[in-house]
TrEMBL record:
InterPro entries: ABC2_TM, ABC2_TM_bact-type, ABC_2_transport, Nod_factor_ABC_transporter
Domain ABC transmembrane type-2: 20-240
Protein name from the UniProt record: Transport permease protein
Record's subcellular location: Cell membrane; Membrane
Species, as recorded: Thermomicrobium roseum (strain ATCC 27502 / DSM 5159 / P-2)
PROSITE patterns given in the database record: ABC_TM2 (PS51012)
Membrane topology of this protein: Multi-pass membrane protein
Source species, domain of life: Bacteria
Entry keywords, A to Z: Cell membrane, Membrane, Transmembrane, Transmembrane helix, Transport
A cellular component annotation (GO) from this entry: ATP-binding cassette (ABC) transporter complex
Molecular function per GO: ABC-type transporter activity
Main location: membrane
Protein family per UniProt: Belongs to the ABC-2 integral membrane protein family.
Transmembrane segments: 21-41, 53-76, 97-124, 130-155, 167-195, 215-233
């Protein structure tokens, strides 16, 4: 446990020391929340834009750390032989992965506090079920961390960099983050409906609405995506 906690603290420090990591994990979701809130961009069915934007940016924060930051950092650690060496220490490979996931959850806690604080300044008031929201965020974390590790362990570091950033942009535009998928044109709406980001963002909107509902369909979709990503990662992840 001591080795696990020490590695988790190091993973958090490495993320916070990285300018690129801070940009993706903390700056971009917060900046987009402020930008869209100032413009008042949100579907008409929401009384206040921030009621739509906060769940969207919470989902984006999960994607930022779980997919982009985790995958790129892990891929370059594999490229430079760090994963191989750490896996051979008493820490072991299993606890190394757990430490990485623990660091992701820690950064997400910081992201959530920051986003909620900004949302409060734009008139957002807590509604819905906080417990359900936490459960959905943890499930979304499992989904996108699994995808991040899958990419990091299967392709070259340079390819991981391009693929993760490309997926990040796709999920923002078509995955229910910037705008609900039902407002997109037909083929794009169908594509967006299938993306895990849409399931996460829609689930968060459901549980944070004034009349919260358990989003069973979205939860089932996230579980299926997580199982799929883990199954593929188990077969394709290479430590060196």
């Amino acid at each position: 446990m001591h080795a696990l906690l020490a590695q988790a603290r190091m993973e958090v420090r490495l993320t916070l020391r990285s300018g690129e990591g801070l940009l993706v994990t903390l700056v971009i979701p917060t900046a987009l929340l402020v930008f869209f809130a100032l413009l008042g961009l949100a579907p008409n069915e929401y009384a206040r834009p921030v009621d739509f934007l906060l769940p969207s940016m919470l989902a984006l924060a999960v994607i930022s750390i779980g997919l982009v930051s985790l995958s790129i950092r892990t891929a370059y650690e594999r490229h430079y032989g760090v994963l191989k060496r750490l896996g051979a220490t008493p820490l072991g490979r299993g606890r190394l992965i757990v430490a990485k996931i623990a660091s992701v959850v820690t950064i997400e806690l910081l992201q959530t506090v920051l986003l909620v604080a900004v949302a409060l300044t734009f008139g957002w008031r807590p509604t819905g079920s906080a417990l359900l929201a936490v459960a959905v965020l943890l499930l979304g974390t499992a989904t996108f961390a699994s995808l991040g590790l899958l990419i990091a362990g299967a392709v070259r570091a340079e390819t991981t960099l391009a693929l993760s950033n490309g997926l990040y942009l796709l999920l923002i535009l078509l995955g229910g983050i910037a705008w609900p998928v039902e407002h997109l044109p037909g083929p794009l709406a169908l594509l967006g409906l299938l993306l895990p980001s849409n399931a996460l963002a829609s689930a968060l909107r459901s549980v944070l609405s004034p009349v919260p509902a358990v989003p069973l369909a979205q939860i089932a979709a996230l579980v299926l995506w997580t199982v799929l990503f883990l199954a593929i990662a188990r077969r394709t992840f290479r430590w060196e």
